[in-house]
Batch of 2 targets.
Target 1
Amino acid sequence: MKNLDVIGKYLFALPFAIFGLMHFMAANDMAGMVPSAIPGGVIWVYLTGACLVAASLAIMLGKMAQLAATLLGVLLVVFVLSIHLPAVMGGDQMAMSGVLKDLALAGAAFFYASKQAA
């Protein structure tokens, strides 16, 4: 079971590092996803990318992993509420996959954080 914990930790954290790097590589393309009510556009994409990479590294290295996983979960819920859910309510039914994916990942992040406290 210990091996599953280690494998699971890396399978969970590594994609966030990749997502974060993708934010830096395609920042201008992603800037359109930032809600128009929030000024700053591409700055938020870079900040989000940095947060995703930092959370991933913290979880993989086991340094402040509980805090990193908790904040990652909060960030994912913010994505659901500010990006995916408004798109669904605006008629984009394909955005529902984003709602469900990010809710599931947020749940996993909170679960991981709770296990770090034990």
Target 2
Amino acid sequence: MKPSQRLESIDLSGVRKMFDLVGEGTINLALGEPDFNTPSHIKDSVKRALDENFTHYTGNQGTLELREAISEKLRQDNHIETSPENVIVTVGASEALLMSTLALVDKGDEVLIPDPGFVSYQACVELAGGTTVPVELDCEDDFRLNPENVQEKISQKSKAIIMNSPANPTGGVMKKEDVKGLAEIAQDHDLVIISDEIYEKIIYGSKHYSPGRYTKNAITINGFSKAYAMTGFRVGYLSAPSNLSESLLKVHQYSTACASSLSQAAALEALTGPQDSVGEMVAEFQRRRDLVVSRLNGMGIECKLPQGAFYLFPQVRDPELFVSEAIKEGVVLVPGASFGAHGAGHFRLSYATSYPELLTAMDRLELLEW
């Protein structure tokens, strides 16, 4: 009995492989999960929903109340004109990514993806039968997706561009002119931008710009896992142009039917309730970032100061050796090549863990011989 051929070229996530190496006393700097607890008011909303027996299917697209709140959020924060009819509540941003590629991509189509970039992008495109075209991101350019580089990769087979800002694994943040440039390319070539904005609120001294502000040819993907420490709730959303909404809904309907009712109650509270916890969490992430960047640079490891997310992507001469030696000292990192060929020469470090653990991890890394 053989599995489907479409899976033969797809590997399991290198990030998750590293996570499996975590043992007792090991400090895990491999996984992108905030170590904060979900805010109390969000947890209380789930308890109320349970007491009210809100435990059944919702509509396929999600509850109207939540989709209205998402539409309002996109209008106010992202300057995207949308409506509840064009919003689908998903099982995390991960489902939204796969939905988008399955709804858009045919066999032989090309999708431009950032390299280095999140591990799911290539897998989602290939599961849809498409081919990925990497667009190299350079450290000297703050790992931004440069419109000029994108333009050079466009071909007659191009169907979509995946962008991610703030970015995993680099922490790079795209500037306004970058995003506008991509929007113009999408318009000129009739391409769709799949914009992964899950780290939108985790940004330091910069501003986030959505391509959906500048073009109708954009699918905006976001969620609640990172900004509200709700990874276990598995709830996200996308907003799409009207001509794509039905195709996206077909994929969603036949794969998951609907997101969890309880998670949708929590998501509504996250959007409409107090936002203090977000600012507090981001301030703590910035404190951690500054600590780790300072310590790594003090070790002679080249590390730029990222403007978003909670990752560092330092450069070392032999990342595989560095990562393997770090594991021996009880610190789990991820080799940069896990995020694309252009990630070779780097490793990813997540500072989404406590300040004391980061201090200990830095002390351990200082002991390495590599």
